[in-house]
Description:
disordered N terminus; Elongation Factor Tu (Ef-tu), domain 3; CATH 2.40.50.100; Immunoglobulin-like; 9-stranded antiparallel beta sheet; mainly beta
Amino acid sequence: MTRKLARRLRWTTTLVASIAALSLGLSACGDRPEDANGGEHGEAEAEFERGPHNGRLLRDGDLSLEITIFETGVEPQFRVYPYVKDRPLDPALVNLTMALTRLGGRVDRFAFTSQGEYLVGSGVVAEPHSFDVEVAATQGGKVHAWRYRSYEGRTTIARTAAEAGGVKVEQAGPTEISETLDLSGRIALQPSGRGEVRAWFPGRVVSLSANVGDRVARGQVIARIESSESLQTYPIPAPISGVVLERPANVGGVASDNPIYVIANPAAIQAEFHVFPRDAERVRPGQRVTIRSLGGEMTALSVIDAFLPLTEVSTQTVTARARVPNANGFWRPGMAVEGTVATRTTAIPLAVRTSALQRFRDFTVVFARVGDTYEVRMLELGRQTPEWTEVLGGLAPGETYVTEGAFLIRADIEKSGASHDH
Length: 422
């Protein structure tokens, strides 16, 4: 291991540890639960009192409520069991409402109706089950109220620490998703990118001013020929700008129909892709194509120009062409390349970057950011490409989410123990 690599590894390890420590400290300060009876700071979240159904037990005088979220075979729903002096109470005797304030300020409100031995909430408790809870109950003419915090998949990290750790964000919104087709091919000169220089009239070669490998400009005089008929010497200019590939002629030789020079313009190149018959109906001129070198170190964007009207007998493929920008001269004729063609493009109202997706419990999620707080968003997904994934539910348009460095957020959440516990 080189000293430079060792220093980078030590720096990365120190940075991750620093972020973890800082986020833990911030989480401890910002996410301590309120006491179930309304106090500002009570027992740790994992130590709240539980009832017979393993739910959170809220007490006020003789009345107590056991709050549970039931999700076996049904969409998550509140089921609340009432007690008086720790004995089961007829749920019909309790008037109950709840309000859940989520990260970002959205409030979900629930009314309750009696069902058997419990009160059932009026709607689905959407994931994540992470919110500030307000409970209001009336029983026997008395009003009772509780407030508490119930967080999962949430952590707080200072903006500077997150950015130093490589965390990047962007807003979720509309995009275009393309169905793609992978092709193989090679780089070739465009027909206009190759020029063969010949004498206009047969004669003796008097001078040649360019050699193989030289760059020449269009119109630059690169040869002089003495006509065999008039015995006058005339100049031969370069027909295109480019690099001299060949110089078959020599001074003193006879120029006739054979080329004096062969010139190639490295900027006038194209990718030629082999399209198999099963895919030929999907590829059309005008479609976008991403061209990649085999090592993946260089890419270029282009469009399919045209198809050659012939099928190669040996491979039964047709050839699709796309011009390749080559300002830096990286692409060279004869190079093998890969291409990804966008065969059909569809506009979708909401998407996230595929690289941002993470696993949390049994869900595919991204991490939303509000201020310095990060929280999971369980996603319902649609179509997917290597770059974009369609979102059908779980994230709001315009919501800010983590696109890079999400592993740091997930690690901090897992370390803090913000679990799915009610």
